[in-house]
């Protein structure tokens, strides 16, 4: 596991300082005097900036709200886990034997944190202009298409899996209203699970509003588990 050459090839980047990559790959469970949490903090901030700039240029006609939604769909635990798997990052992470038994190498939280840390480490060593093409290449290889419809497509499916396991029921989506002229209509949808509402969201179509509110419900349910 101490040979990172394949990981570096996947990234298209070679670390000058090997201690930096070791720190970025060290989960807190591994019980060393260092771990990847500080680099994860840095990586999160830099990823937000790079993805934000990328979307700003890619979608010149989208408003701030739309850009924020697309970025939120990419810059999160699910998005970073997807990118981490693209480079087989789980094979290289240092975790405790307990985490190993608990399949820690495939856990979304551990993978996404390590991905942020690796990106933070590259930024620290070589700066924004070196890191930017690495991230954008990974994004474009991991997603066939980057837009609201595609990125929101999995939230309803993911939520249904969660609610069937937790409540033995499926979510109910209720249209609360529609606003604006026909050419610029916006729909408001609420979500109900097991007789309880988990929020409302708006979208340019009923489908987008449902996907947005499904994401809200997922975040709430995951928060309850912590």
From TrEMBL:
EC number(s) stated in the UniProt entry for this protein: 3.1.26.3
Main location: cytoplasm
PROSITE patterns per record: DS_RBD, RNASE_3_1, RNASE_3_2
Keyword tRNA-binding: no
InterPro entries: dsRBD_dom, RNase_III, RNase_III_dom, RNase_III_sf
Gene Ontology process terms (BP): mRNA processing; regulation of gene expression; rRNA processing; tRNA processing
Catalytic reaction equation(s): Endonucleolytic cleavage to 5'-phosphomonoester
Active site as annotated: 44, 116
Cofactor (UniProt): Mg(2+)
GO MF assignments: double-stranded RNA binding; metal ion binding; ribonuclease III activity; rRNA binding
GO-annotated cellular components: cytoplasm
A Pfam cross-reference name: Ribonucleas_3_3
Subcellular location: Cytoplasm
Binding residue positions for Mg(2+): 40, 113, 116
Known partners and oligomeric status: Homodimer.
Family: Belongs to the ribonuclease III family.
Function of the molecule: Digests double-stranded RNA. Involved in the processing of primary rRNA transcript to yield the immediate precursors to the large and small rRNAs (23S and 16S). Processes some mRNAs, and tRNAs when they are encoded in the rRNA operon. Processes pre-crRNA and tracrRNA of type II CRISPR loci if present in the organism.
Protein name: Ribonuclease 3
Origin species: Malaciobacter pacificus
Gene that encodes the chain: rnc
